[in-house]
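We close this part of the discussion by returning to an individual protein. Part of our work consisted of pairing the sequence of a single chain with a tokenised description of its backbone. No coordinates are needed to read the tokens, only the vocabulary itself. The amino acid sequence and the backbone structure tokens for this protein are reproduced below:
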Amino acid sequence: MTRIPLHSTDRLLPGWTAWAALVTVGLAALLVRGYAYWGRPYLSGTDYGQIVLQAQLYLDGGTLPDRVPYFQLGQTDWAPQPGAAMVFAMLAKLAGRPVMDVLPLVLLFALVEVGGVYLLAWSIFRRADAALMAASVAAVLPGQPEMMAWSGYPNLMGLAVMPLVWWVWLAYWRQPDRRRLILAAVVLAGAASIHHLTTLWMGATLGLFGIAHVVAQPRRSLGKLLPVGAAAAIIGLPVVWQIVDRYIASGMVDALAGQPDRFESVRVNWEGWARVVEPVSLAVLAAGFAGFLLARSIRGDARVLIGAYGLVSVLLGWGWLWGVEFYYTRALYFLAVPVALGAAALLYRWREGWLRIGVAAALVVVLSTSAIVRVHQASDYYQVLSPETMQAVDWLAENSAPDDVIVVSTFLGFQMAHLLERPLLVAMTPVLVGNVQENPLAEDAVAIMLGLHNMDEVIDRRGVRFVMVKATFPDVPSPFRSLTVMEANPRLEQVFRNAQVVIYEVIDA
């Protein structure tokens, strides 16, 4: 019978047992994350609307679009990296189905993440049981299932491939031959195209890793870094160009510096930690990950790499303490790998026996239960599309002209761009604006939704014809205030209403 080699101090695991366990872990990840889709006529989430739009434009035109049509009057450039939209476009083309129909295939990235964590942990611990423990924790942490609920698909896909990036990098670093060099360059370039935060984390992590090794072993380290850096730059030249074009030429870099305390409302607190990472993970990080970094049995390159990755997550997650502006809570989603490896390191410092098995099982059960509860709550919270919403879309499509400007809230904004195909002013608060070019348009939309002093002036200047309000909580801005404002303005007349949406028309436009 084929066996997986482990350290001599550990019991050998039959190959079929390890594979069966890994398949079970993969199925658990699919079930937990797939719960976001259970029994829903439409996918929950706000963000996937722009993914659908970008993917469809790519399919229709054959090239990546430069401008975002409809959204914020079509006056802004695409800010997100195009990798996720290109993946969905390819899947839609292969399946012969609309892009909306293939979105649930993002679930397959749960298997990518589980497999990547397993391979990474195996390369670090050289133990199948430790690798399975790490994969099990990564499969059921609540952060990624919650991301499914609000449809942060590009970020989710980037997080899924991250463990594979580190596995491939360590393989190259330990044996830098031509095959591993090309594979590392291709994987780095591909991962960097998916999501800007993936790119940021990879660049910062590998930068710290490279500095540490160059300081310790300059000639040997440069002999590995320079070839793979050159290969990745050449292979990933289109990705590098996209990053430069989208985040420097469009002013994205200046946006953070020009808006101090913009992200004050999303600083990491206990509620955010409990929601994304789960309270028990704090003990895993404090004891297990610390033990991982100090363990002499683990090779130094792995400890430096994962340590740098964890440091980047901490520096950005608590960046306000040292003057860094960032959407702080997003850093918590990147802690899955440190938590998973920390759990493996913590549990396997104990002697074998039923206690260790029981603690491992209890940890997985606690995390999976929390994930299921959280994804159910989050899916209800972010359920934007419904039969009532689609009824409102149909009404607007029939009763508006192609150039009629429509003001919508944040939750509706991303979806209306691909469903309605009308020029939109989307009300978004500063913390939600992802492209600095959107700021003046988002501010004008907020002024209308909140009934600010310049509401009527904005209606005239922007040529607004309709205002579409989500009638139920939650939304941004508050739907209750927006409804009160619209009813009080004599220039607005209610022309459509159902249980989910109210539409007002500017009667003197």
